Amino acid sequence: MDRRQFLGAASGLSVALSLPAKLSASELPADLTDLTAAQLSAVIREQQASCVEVMKAYLERIHRYNPVYTAIVSMVDDDQAIRQAEMADNALAKDEYWGWMHGMPHAIKNLSNAKGLETSSGSPIFAGTIAEADDLHVGRIRSQGAIFIGKTNTPEFGLGSQSYNPVHGTTGCAYDPGLTAGGSSGGAACGMATHMLPIADGSDMMGSLRNPGAFNNVFGFRPSQGRVPRFPVAISSITSYRPAARWGGMSRTPFDCCTPLPATTPGFP
User: Fold this and answer.
1) Residue 78 phi/psi, 5° resolution?
2) Which of 74, 112, 120, 184 is catalytic?
3) Hey, which end of the chain has fewer CB within 10 Å, N or C?
4) CA-CA distance, 128 to 213, in Å (whole number)?
5) At residue 234, what are phi and psi to the nearest 5 degrees?
6) What is the pTM of this model?
7) Does residue 87 register a pLDDT over 80?
8) Residue 163 annotated to the active site
């Protein structure tokens, strides 16, 4: 194990140790999508709910609400997502714990590459382009056990404080789909506020994590320069040549918002 691998493993362990302990039966909600990301992580880790149960709960909610809001785009097939959840359950049964996002459904902002998923950046120029590899921060999210179910909607090339584009359409505000969700991480913010996602990633150059967070009553955190490494990044992304841009987290609670950061930065000076 080299230094970078050691730091990566240590970062994942530090995140896991900071998460809540096992929830009591009375603390478990009837709907698993009501759990915060930290609570959901603990529930999965303690095997109080299976990864398949979690995945099915989120897919049911997505199929119910996403046609109204258009927060999540380029989704994988349900069967594929459930198969990956089954693999996560099998790993836990063998005492293999991948990280704090083990078995949790996740959708990457559609300005970043996630291997096997479309990266259109909301532009017809790149529509249908399938990523051949993960961007650096995306790979680190995947290494914590996240199951990628699709992408979150953005304006074309991330340019705008709204989230509409000619490829996937318009993302509406979680509280009124007739109003804007903000942007450019509008799909991420709306997806969490409507409980279609437990947590989200995003990017921010001039408010793209913070303004949709405010519009949808969730939290967007813009880290300092270099805190989350950005390279390699999607060639179609405006953030690939704008040093003011940052990759960061979005969540329903302040605690959840900072939890992913150590998992995306191991070994980075």
Assistant:
1) -55, -45
2) 184
3) C
4) 28
5) -60, 130
6) 0.86
7) yes
8) no
Q: Which region, left, alpha or beta, applies to residue 226 given φ > 0 means left and ψ of -120 to 50 means alpha? A: left
Whether 265 shows a pLDDT value over 60: the answer reads no
Q: Which of 50, 109, 121, 123 is catalytic?
A: 109
pLDDT at 179 exceeding the cut of 90: yes
Pair of tokens at residue 11? 């970062």
Which pLDDT band, with edges at 50, 70 and 90, does 178 fall under?
A: very high
The tokens 């994942």 sit on which residue? 12
Return d(Cα 223, Cα 196) in angstroms, integer: 24
What angle, rounded to 10 degrees, do the helices at 136-143 and 3-18 form? 60
* Residue from 50, 74, 185, 208 carrying the catalytic annotation: 208
The residue among 262, 119, 253, 136 whose CA lies nearest residue 198 is 253
Amino acid making up residue 120: S
Report the pLDDT averaged over residues 68-85: 98
State the DSSP code for 47. Answer: T
Based on the residue annotation, tell me whether 143 is a catalytic residue of this protein. Answer: no
* Three-state helix/strand/coil letters over 188-232: HHHHHHCCCCCCEEEEECCCCCHHHHHHCCCEEECCCCCCCCCCC
Residue 123 annotated as catalytic: no
